[in-house]
Amino acid sequence: MARHFTDRPQELVPKYLVQLLPQQRHALVVDTATATLYVYENKDGVVRYLTDYYVSIGKEGMDKFREGDNKTPLGVYNVVGDISREVLERRYGPLAGQYGIGAFPINYPNDWDRRAGRNGHGIWLHGVPFDTYSRPPRASNGCVALSNEDFVALAKHVKVGATPVIIANGIEWTSPGELNALRTDLTQAFETWRSDWESLNTGNYLSHYSRQFAAPGYNHRTWSEYKRAVNAGKTWIKLRVDNVSIFFYPGDGELAMVTFNQYYSSSNLSGTTKRRQYWKKENGVWKIIHEGMAPA
């Protein structure tokens, strides 16, 4: 049965839920400090508390760094699968019982984890053994475990490929007004980046990138050289974006994860991709610190 966490600030919301897509109808926020999983509903772009559940996390705590450390990761993830009890039993035999009624795998490690050197795999939201109602607050091998009854209730709010899972060690709460201000600040920075790229003013475009920027195969210097060479061969660029989601990242200072569809066309090339950027605030200014492809 759901446990409703009484210390939740009634008028505040988690700072992480900056901008959800319409198809992201619910968001899951796990607070490892209070062993609580909150479910938030996305109603026309406004997030509202729906319910919460008691959970168990890794027996060695949180902030997973390597395979086998029995810790639960901290970050922004997505549910990427739905494994039924029947599949668990077929796949794991007698060991399936530890996962209970079912499991929702998440995409740990993500790009930010890999940049930091974190590794490991198999982080799930899952049930508990059928002879156990719930487990102690720290009892899993790194997964987030709920009672089987709560797992079944939670499943009604989960959509594979769409539902975000934010795991934090102590939630940063904010008012709806402050969340709107953060959304405006980030969307303005993002739109200026888009406009500067489209303008073919490469200097202005590159000013949005942190000196600590990295992308697969690039650092700030090589990225700048590449972009200057590419733009020198173009006479025009048009850049359209849509399906922009924004999540404030837990535990890494002023960091935000922005995911979007990118429709690029120019005088000599065009293409459509799904992109993900990590923006970090440096001296009061949002800068892109990491960029790459996002899963389709």
Q: What features would you describe in this structure?
A:
Helix content is 21%, strand content 37%. The protein has 296 residues and is α+β, with helices and mostly antiparallel strands. The chain folds into 2 domains: 162 residues, L,D-transpeptidase catalytic domain-like, CATH 2.40.440.10; 118 residues, Nuclear Transport Factor 2, Chain: A (Roll), CATH 3.10.450.50. The strands form 5 sheets. A 7-stranded mixed beta sheet has the order 2-17-18-19-20-15-16. It has a 5-stranded mixed beta sheet with strand order 5-4-3-13-7, with no helix packed on it. A hairpin with a 3-residue loop joins β18 and β19. The relative contact order is 0.16.
Task: Tell me the layout of helices and strands.
Blueprint: E1 13-14, E2 17-19, E3 26-31, E4 36-43, E5 46-54, E6 57-58, E7 75-78, E8 83-84, H1 85-92, E9 102-105, H2 111-115, E10 124-126, E11 138-140, E12 144-145, H3 148-155, E13 164-168, E14 173-174, H4 176-198, H5 202-206, E15 209-215, E16 218-219, H6 220-232, E17 237-248, E18 255-266, E19 270-282, E20 285-293
Parallel strand pairs: 3-13, 6-11, 10-12, 15-20
Antiparallel strand pairs: 1-14, 2-17, 3-4, 4-5, 7-13, 8-9, 9-10, 15-16, 17-18, 18-19, 19-20
For the record, the CATH class of the largest domain is Mainly Beta
Q: Mean pLDDT, as a whole number?
A: 95
* Number of individual domains: 2
Number of strands: 20
Based on the coordinates given, report the CATH architecture of the largest domain: Beta Barrel
The spatial strand order of the largest sheet comes to 2-17-18-19-20-15-16
Q: What is CATH's topology name of the largest domain?
A: L,D-transpeptidase catalytic domain-like
Instruction: Report the biggest beta sheet as strand number plus sense, adding barrel if it closes.
Output: 7 strands, mixed
Cα-atom radius of gyration: 20 Å
Percent of residues in helices: 10-25%
N-to-C CA distance: 35 Å
Global structural class: alpha+beta
Low-confidence stretches: none
CATH superfamily of the largest domain: L,D-transpeptidase catalytic domain-like
How would the global form be characterised?
elongated
Count of helix runs: 6
Helix and strand element order = EEEEEEEEHEHEEEHEEHHEEHEEEE
Strand content: 35-45%
